[in-house]
Amino acid sequence: MRTISFIIAVITALLLLSTLICGLWIKSKNLATDQSALSFHMKIGVLSVAFGIITIILFIIQLLKK
Question: Model pTM?
Answer without folding.
Answer: 0.67
